[in-house]
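Task: sequence design from structure.
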């Protein structure tokens, strides 16, 4: 049966059979007919085609159930039934395709050569029935067990867990997603066949060559449609939508009147050009009076400089404007100058900004420059090189002026980056030597797995250290921590200045997502789990990639200290790399209390 590909019907047209030409091996139908009965297919051409879209290969069903069950194993973050249903459906389709190919290969190269194959109709019917029933039962049992895992993971992160009955909806949604994707594939398959028939009929090309040409034609058309039309159209639409968002002013935010802020009446960077995130950054934060009250001593007015994407026509003009703002505000006369490459939308972590201002009692200048108004995940997929170039331009411009000042008269120069902002920040340096020669310290939080320098440090980590908690050259310059407690464990170990610190959660999908997850088990999934990851999480080909991809959608939607939500741990990071003289553990605890009060009064981070 594997030898058959296309047969001719009474009209002479080629129609798909139950053999290898179906879904790569469109095998016998699922156990829907009684034993010893011959299946009756719909006679109308459209009905026959529609029927072909829902026929399933029973070997494919078994593998689909296997991949679906794998997808129900725990991932980095708790998932509700909706996300799990989407991921389960995608992975079931991948498993179905793998099973169809394996089934076709076995039938063609193994079973076709044994005398007892094919089995009698009754035996085949029972074999299919048992396979399908077992697949359904296994899937239901895994759904129940998966709900238990999800509750364990939620408890680990102090989040609300799911219910078993609610999680059963995952199975229904996964079936719908899988059916849709398989039908889409079969529509494309039938299109390939139609194109092949036209090539064979019009150009007299032999059928094998026509089939290959038909496949190439459809692939080219599909790639052109996706890359040339859909992706570019979506990118243009995203630019339009998020461009409108960028022009809005956040609720409750007003133009600052302080000359130390960009967007103020004295500023060279006008308020209406700063963008949504820029307006939020310059208008919020603790003022000098609040800092004085919090710290019990007279504070300076913190400087916040921000240049938006609309503040000047070109990147270089925006950099020049940013430098002029720094000089106007007196930023180079402060104790600490912090360069902050933003995320895709121009966002700056408000907790990180307020933490360093609290530590220095306002004697700080923070500077950021927007390079896009697209969300980080779109910027990451569409133009990640733009982030690195923007970070390099931002830092080089500040460093050029800073390095020209007398050493005893210039401020400490620090860099902070979070998420895609770390990728922009790393883009400013050639390597570790460049960082050490140009800065007084670097704090990078939640770095994406593709970061160039991060990847180098992690890959070259000391033997015996793990990917989740790597040790690079005994931690003499670069250190990695999962939580503030890790810093305290390293207090008695030498750490050369300037300090370079990465904070990364074992449960942060931004840190661990990589296309390599498709076919390669990463070290972090073969090593002992970090403190907020379940040991039950395992690596499966294809499946783990889609699990972690789904986790990205809720990366920051978990409590502080987990996922991509770093909360007040940035304060500990600042204390490790940029503590002012005389800073004590009591000062740090007091600052944390103030930060938590501010976060509570201002609402969740944007």
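Answer:
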């Amino acid at each position: 049966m594997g030898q058959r590909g296309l047969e001719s019907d009474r009209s002479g047209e080629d129609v798909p059979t139950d053999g290898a030409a179906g879904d790569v091996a469109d095998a016998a139908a699922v156990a829907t007919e009684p034993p010893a009965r011959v299946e009756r297919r719909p006679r109308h051409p459209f009905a026959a085609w529609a029927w072909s879209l829902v026929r399933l290969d029973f070997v494919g069903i078994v593998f689909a159930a296997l991949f679906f069950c794998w997808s129900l194993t725990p991932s980095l973050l708790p998932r509700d039934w909706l996300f799990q249903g989407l991921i389960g459906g995608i992975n079931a389709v991948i498993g179905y395709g793998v099973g169809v190919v394996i089934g076709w290969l076995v039938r063609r190269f193994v079973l076709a050569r044994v005398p007892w194959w094919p089995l009698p109709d009754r035996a085949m019917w029972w074999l299919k029935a048992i396979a399908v029933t077992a697949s359904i039962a296994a899937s239901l049992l895994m759904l129940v067990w998966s709900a238990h895992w999800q509750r364990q993971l939620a408890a680990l992160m102090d989040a609300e867990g799911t219910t078993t009955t609610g999680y059963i909806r995952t199975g229904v949604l996964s079936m719908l997603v899988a059916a849709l994707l398989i039908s889409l594939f079969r529509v494309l398959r039938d299109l390939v066949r139609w194109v092949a028939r036209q090539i064979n009929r019009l150009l007299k090309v032999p059928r094998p060559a026509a089939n290959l040409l038909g496949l190439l034609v459809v692939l080219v058309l599909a790639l052109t449609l996706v890359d040339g039309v859909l992706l570019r159209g979506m990118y243009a639409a995203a630019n339009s939508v998020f461009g409108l968002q960028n022009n809005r002013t956040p609720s409750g935010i007003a133009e600052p009147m302080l000359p130390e802020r960009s967007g103020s009446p004295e500023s060279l960077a006008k308020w209406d050009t700063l963008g949504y995130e820029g307006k939020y950054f310059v208008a919020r934060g603790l003022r000098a009076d609040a800092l004085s009250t919090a710290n019990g001593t007279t504070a300076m007015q913190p400087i916040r400089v921000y240049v938006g994407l609309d503040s000047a026509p070109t990147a270089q003009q925006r950099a020049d404007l940013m430098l002029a703002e720094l000089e106007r505000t007196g930023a180079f006369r402060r104790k600490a100058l912090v360069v902050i490459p933003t995320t895709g939308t121009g966002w700056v972590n408000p907790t990180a900004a307020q933490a360093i201002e609290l530590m220095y009692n306002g004697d700080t200048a923070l500077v950021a420059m927007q390079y896009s108004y697209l969300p980080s995940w779109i910027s990451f997929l569409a133009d990640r090189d733009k982030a690195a170039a923007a970070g390099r331009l931002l830092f080089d411009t500040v460093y050029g002026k800073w390095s020209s000042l007398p050493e005893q008269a210039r401020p400490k120069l620090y860099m902070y980056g979070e998420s895609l902002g770390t990728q922009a920040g790393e883009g400013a340096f050639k390597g570790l030597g460049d960082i050490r020669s140009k800065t007084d310290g670097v704090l990078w939080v939640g770095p994406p797995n593709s970061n160039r320098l991060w990847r180098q440090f992690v890959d070259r980590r000391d033997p015996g250290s793990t990917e989740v908690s790597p040790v690079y050259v005994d931690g003499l310059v670069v250190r990695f921590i999962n939580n503030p407690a890790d810093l305290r464990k390293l207090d008695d170990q030498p750490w050369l200045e300037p300090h370079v610190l990465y904070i990364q959660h074992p449960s942060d999908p931004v840190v661990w997502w990589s296309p390599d997850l498709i076919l390669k088990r990463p070290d972090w999934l073969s090593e002992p789990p970090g403190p907020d990851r379940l040991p039950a999480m395992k690596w499966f080909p294809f499946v783990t990639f889609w699990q972690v991809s789904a986790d990205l959608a809720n990366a920051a939607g978990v409590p502080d200290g987990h996922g991509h939500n770093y909360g007040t741990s940035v304060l500990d990071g600042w204390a490790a790399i940029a503590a002012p003289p005389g800073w004590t553990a009591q000062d740090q605890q007091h600052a944390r209390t103030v930060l938590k009060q501010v976060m509570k009064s201002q609402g969740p981070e944007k």
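Strands lie at 6-8, 14-16, 303-307, 336-339, 364-369, 412-418, 441-445, 478-481, 499-503.
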